[in-house]
Amino acid sequence: MKVAILSGSVYGTAEEVARHAERLLKAAGFEAWHKAHMGLDELKAFAPDAFLTVTSTTGMGELPDNLLPLYHSIRDQLPDWRGRPGAVLALGDSSYDLFCGGGEQVRELYAELGIREVVEMLRVDSSETVTPEVDAEPWIAGLIQALRGA
């Protein structure tokens, strides 16, 4: 199964979590692919069977600037990815009102595209962890199990 890993990061933390998830998915036998700043044409060329988006939140609950071009391209073109499995791992700071708002935006996009959320979105609170990639490992293990059953 080919898993595309999309990421949006302001300070690089979400990128590192995405790279860690890519390593874990590959170790589990999936053809996982992550590229920072990927374009929609590249994503379509990969022809993913499943999606994982790892994103932080910035400003007033928004997606990071580096994910916006891909996000808008997907919203404009609405590729036919109905029924494919997907999951969102969101990083944020619970001291802000719109905690993990970027992740919520991706969940809404998944719903528009008909992508099935196979595990509930993980919210990682930066005010409570210094090792989000390690903290996400049990959730990623659950995602691997869900994808094997998809």
TrEMBL record:
Key words of the record: Flavoprotein, FMN
Keyword Nucleotide-binding on entry: no
Gene3D superfamilies per the UniProt record, alphabetical: 3.40.50.360
Molecular-function annotations in GO: flavin adenine dinucleotide binding; FMN binding; oxidoreductase activity, acting on NAD(P)H, quinone or similar compound as acceptor
Annotated InterPro entries: Flavodoxin/NO_synth, Flavoprotein-like_sf
Listed GO CC annotations: cytosol
UniProt cofactor(s): FMN
Location of the Flavodoxin-like domain: 3-144
Keyword Flavoprotein belongs to the record: yes
TM region positions: none
UniProt-listed PANTHER family: NADPH OXIDOREDUCTASE A, NITRIC OXIDE SYNTHASE-RELATED
Protein name in UniProt: Flavodoxin-like domain-containing protein
Organism in which the protein naturally occurs: Pseudomonas tohonis
Organism placement in taxonomy: Bacteria, Pseudomonadati, Pseudomonadota, Gammaproteobacteria, Pseudomonadales
